[in-house]
Amino acid sequence: MQRTAILIALVMLTVVANSAYATNVTSACVISNSSEACSLEKQISLAEEDMAKMISDGFKVTRYNDTLTVAKNEFDTKLYLQITTNKTQDFSVVKDKLNELANIKTLAYRARDELKTLEATINETGGDLSEVMPYFYRAKSEFLSERYEYALNAIDATYQALSEQQSMQTKLRLFYEATTRTLANFVSTYWKEIIVSIIVLAIVALISWHRISIYLLNKKLEHLYLRRTTLKKLIAKTQKEFFEKGTIDETTYHIRLNKYGEIIRDINRQIPLVKEELESLSHGFIKIRRRGEKNEQKE
Asked: Is the pTM of this model over 0.70?
């Protein structure tokens, strides 16, 4: 409606300025007497129809509409100047914008179709696609933002990531199959040697564990004897400080003796348990026990 009003106004101005134009002229083509203007006007009309079609197909047309508005405004301005000055105008900007509109339309439909195909491919592929999906989500985001060029680039990147992911999975599968076959062949060929090796390793492990256990129990027993000896020394020292030197009070004396006594009783409880466990593994603990007792008596 707005363009029609502008054209009618242009017609009226032209009739006043130049009586050579007939009063029933309603077409910009006739008014401007320019085949170029006529062609551009038809292209703009087709672009408007294309935008309506894109809207019905579910596309966002903010970018398309903005570009079309620039083309229409530029066309109206140049047409007005051409009519009023009777001088040929440069419609190159209009042509560029019309070419841009055609490109936007082509990219939009191409991006939509490729995005649908890509989504179907991803759904059919399945598996772990954690490295692929970020590219796909970016492609969808670019498409919804009408940046169709970037959407197509993101689609290509998604296919590349998908290809690399599938290639890696194929390599892992082949490696697993090859390793499995090799291991199976090895076992079938050397199964006797493998069984013997397992038995030998089990015996060695059992002997080693037995010896290590005996060693650790002996060390624990020695440590208990050493702690008990040390505590007895501390008791003797405390008694000397209280009875002979008088450097500690009676409360401190009793607290220390009670504490040392509790620890010694706990050690005396642990020693038989360790001896019993050690005896179940080996009778050699007597040597260690006697050495510990000898050291204790010596102290």
From this structure: no
